[in-house]
Each structure stands twice: as structure tokens, then as C-alpha cells.
Amino acid sequence: FLSLCIMDEKVDILDDEGKPTGKSCLKSEAHRKGLLHPTVHIWFYTPEGRVLIQQRGKNKATHPLLWDVSVAGHVAAGEKIVTAASREVEEEIGLTISTIDLESLGTFKAVHKISEDFIDAELHHIFLCQLSVPLNQLTIQEIEVEDLALVPLFKFAEETWGLASMGKYVPHGPTYYKTIIKAIKSRT
Predict the structure, then answer these.
(1) Rg of the Cα trace of the chain?
(2) pLDDT digits (tens, 9 = 90+) for 102-157
(3) Residues in contact with 165: Cβ distance below 8 Å, sequence separation at least 6, in sequence order
(4) Is the Cβ–Cβ distance between 145 and 56 less than 8 Å?
(5) Residues 26, 146, 157: CA angle, nearest 5 degrees
(6) Rounded to the nearest 5 degrees, what angle is found at the Cα of 87, between the Cα atoms of 183 and 54?
(7) pTM for the complete prediction?
């Protein structure tokens, strides 16, 4: 897996509408210049209405140790979105899935100024995927992921939508979390 070897992989640059510009650069440059680039967010859920959440690694540049989407990552330059999604799932939680297991929820644009020289401008391609194995069969990628947990949807909704635990989760904002919660709720 290329991104395991080279954490500063090349990413494609998008325009303000999320369309490819035909240009690519290193991820570090995209972050330094605040250039919009594609990422994938894959939310796993169980038929009983539980959500798989990931605690970000302690050495992550953004939001270390906060709880977040089940799996997330950058789309390498020239890589298909669904290919990146299935690759990231295998890398981060050790689960092999087929791209047909991924259900697209569309995209969500997010721009966060982390510091003067780090502007995270990402177009998240969001997917749902039913978790077909027990939590203890997942293997975390230790440099990316600190821990995994399965939480009931109502608790997840209370903690993100209600923003009761602001310091616990990555601040994607209520609109983002509402979209995820409603989509999972309609499938369980």
C-alpha cells in the first residue's frame, strides 16, 4: 500500500465546486496552501443500530485522540474514490470490503484553519457500509488509529448532534453529523 510507505502522497486538487483542476501536489503542500482535495469518510454501522467510531491516533496532526468517523483518508492522485475508500478500510481497520458494499451519501466540503501554515480544505466523499464482522475481528493501524468502539446510534446522536460532548468528537459540525445519523437510522 503506497500510502503506508509514503505518508505524504500526491493528491488531486479540486476547484471551489469540487471538480478536478487537472493538477496534483503533495498532501503537505495542499494543506500548507489550503488547496481543496478529495478525501473519503466511511461510516460503519450494524443492523442493530450501532455506529463504529474511531479514536484518532495520538500523533495525528489534526484532532489527536478525538473520536471520529469509522475510517477516513486521502484519495491519492488519480485514484478512484471507491478504490480509496476500500483501501483505507483495509489499511485502518484490517477489513477487506468490496466497493459494492459502499453506499454513497454524497460529498461534504470542509475547510478548517488549523494554523497559519495548515489549512485543511477537503471534499469528503461520504459512504455508509454495514459492519459484517464483530469488533474484535478488526485490526487497527496503530500509527493512524488509537482505538475503535461500537456505540448505540442514540448515544452517538446525543453526543454529536446535541453537541453534548464537544471535546470528545472531531468538530465536523451538526449538519454533517445529522446527515450521518439520519442515514444510519433509516437503515436500522
Answers:
(1) 16
(2) 999 999 999 888 888 888 899 999 999 999 999 999 999 988 899 999 999 999 99
(3) 159
(4) yes
(5) 95
(6) 55
(7) 0.92
